[in-house]
Amino acid sequence: MSFNSNRTTYLKPLWFERLNVSESKELIRSYQTSVVYISVGYVVLTFLGRWWMRNRKPFKLRRPLIAWNLILAIFSTIGFWRTFPTFVALLTQPDGIYRSVCTYDYTSDTEAFWGLMYTISKLFEFVDTVFIVLRKAPLLFLHWFHHMSMAIFMFYLYPIGDPVGRWGGILNYGVHSIMYSYYSVKMGGFQVPKSVSSIITMLQMGQFVLTLFANVYALVMFGIGYPCALSNMTIFIQFVGGTSYLILFANYYYQTYVKLKPKSA
């Protein structure tokens, strides 16, 4: 089995996508400790907020929530549009899967820029929880744990830049583009079949399955002697994060769409 080492870029970077990758990695690395504190503070403030709201009427916030979901839907759609074509072009190569998880041949300014935006966006997604707290909507462990851990994980993964990370980021862009669009439509008062939300949950589980597959594949290739850009930090975060998220989302799916509940529920 042989591998072509020529670098190919399929999307020409737009003017705002050009960045110094080394500087962007150093920037994110310099905030790693701060993000840990911010993420812990996010959890503390979340539960303080729920305590503060316990005897207060919920805020409606319908229009701000629609606008917020639309912003995230548009952001995720653009991120997916700018990264997915190169990802597909890479995977359709004879050695595509290997190169997608083990080599830097297909990295580009476009991919690096949207990886940076993806990393930073995990902090902005904390705003999702603000709406939940102020509207007194149910707050699941899945929700705040996922937001907190993803922010920390991404600020440690981006500076490493292992190729396998593109699987999680690009797939998540795609799922979020659908998920936040769904939230926008639902908050807009449109009737959406319950099956749509269950499909979105399945897509979320699917991205974790594929990400775990990519990591296992990379480990296998490394184990049989092929060079693979895979660090111990990436292996740890991808497996711990991917496995925990898959279990939590699978449990949520079972509790919400499979388990029989009393009619009173």
UniProtKB/TrEMBL annotation:
<feature type="transmembrane region" description="Helical">
    <location>
        <begin position="34"/>
        <end position="53"/>
    </location>
</feature>
<keyword id="KW-0275">Fatty acid biosynthesis</keyword>
<feature type="transmembrane region" description="Helical">
    <location>
        <begin position="233"/>
        <end position="254"/>
    </location>
</feature>
<keyword id="KW-0276">Fatty acid metabolism</keyword>
<keyword id="KW-0808">Transferase</keyword>
<feature type="transmembrane region" description="Helical">
    <location>
        <begin position="206"/>
        <end position="227"/>
    </location>
</feature>
<dbReference type="GO" id="GO:0019367">
    <property type="term" value="P:fatty acid elongation, saturated fatty acid"/>
</dbReference>
<dbReference type="GO" id="GO:0005789">
    <property type="term" value="C:endoplasmic reticulum membrane"/>
</dbReference>
<dbReference type="GO" id="GO:0042761">
    <property type="term" value="P:very long-chain fatty acid biosynthetic process"/>
</dbReference>
<keyword id="KW-1133">Transmembrane helix</keyword>
<keyword id="KW-0444">Lipid biosynthesis</keyword>
<keyword id="KW-0443">Lipid metabolism</keyword>
<keyword id="KW-0472">Membrane</keyword>
<keyword id="KW-0812">Transmembrane</keyword>
<comment type="similarity">
    <text>Belongs to the ELO family.</text>
</comment>
<feature type="transmembrane region" description="Helical">
    <location>
        <begin position="113"/>
        <end position="134"/>
    </location>
</feature>
<dbReference type="InterPro" id="IPR002076">
    <property type="entry name" value="ELO_fam"/>
</dbReference>
<feature type="transmembrane region" description="Helical">
    <location>
        <begin position="65"/>
        <end position="84"/>
    </location>
</feature>
<dbReference type="GO" id="GO:0030148">
    <property type="term" value="P:sphingolipid biosynthetic process"/>
</dbReference>
<dbReference type="GO" id="GO:0034625">
    <property type="term" value="P:fatty acid elongation, monounsaturated fatty acid"/>
</dbReference>
<feature type="transmembrane region" description="Helical">
    <location>
        <begin position="164"/>
        <end position="185"/>
    </location>
</feature>
<feature type="transmembrane region" description="Helical">
    <location>
        <begin position="141"/>
        <end position="158"/>
    </location>
</feature>
<protein>
    <recommendedName>
        <fullName>Elongation of very long chain fatty acids protein</fullName>
        <ecNumber>2.3.1.199</ecNumber>
    </recommendedName>
</protein>
<dbReference type="GO" id="GO:0009922">
    <property type="term" value="F:fatty acid elongase activity"/>
</dbReference>
<dbReference type="GO" id="GO:0034626">
    <property type="term" value="P:fatty acid elongation, polyunsaturated fatty acid"/>
</dbReference>
<dbReference type="Pfam" id="PF01151">
    <property type="entry name" value="ELO"/>
</dbReference>
<dbReference type="InterPro" id="IPR030457">
    <property type="entry name" value="ELO_CS"/>
</dbReference>
